[in-house]
Amino acid sequence: MAGSNACSPHRPVQLLKCSEDPRLFKLLVCVTDQVGLLFRLCELLLEHTIDIVDAELQLDDAQCFRAELVLRNPCPDASESSASKLGFELEQFLRGCEGSEPPKPEDPRILERLCVNPDLFCVSAFNEMSCSGATPGELTYKLQVSGINQAGLLAYLSLVFFRCGFNIIHTAITTTGPDSDSQLSFTLTTTSPRAAKMLHTHLDITSPTCGTAASLRKTSGSSATDVGSTSSRSVAND
Known about the structure:
- Helices cover 26% and strands 31% of the residues.
- By secondary structure, it is an alpha+beta fold.
């Protein structure tokens, strides 16, 4: 992971352009963690129709949020000025998060902004982990998601975790391109014994195995699902 051992107040964001593909960027983030930060960052990227191709995110012991993301701008003629503008907006946004109120995950206005197709992904693993250095009363879980890449999936999942009372300690994401295979892995912590039960109401994690991206394409419907609907994978359910 790029960056120093402490969060720098001077360079919280670096946006590096790929010399081989002008649509690709590497985003480096190092800021003090805030409630709902990952969800808010994903929302901003969605507003700019920016795809997350790969990501490695870590919350360290000093509560410093570090992220290294490979982003794709779908616009083939992405200019240097647009990249600079995005980098400046990201930096201003992250600085502003520190002094603003965190989002309310139950707010229907937040729910209405997200729409994903639940048939295009599934939970392939969800297990409680034993951690020797964990805080007394803290529970740690490992959750893995497989499926077809779709815009808004990371924002959707981070909102689900946020609403259930989980902290995201580590995230790893790998995709092979738009509408292709996507693998997401999360390490989650919580002090609430109800968090795992709540997660079951939002995500289908009863099946021990998950189909391939090809099989998901065959069985998926054409319509997307608003996370404010009554779907079993909706964060609107209680």
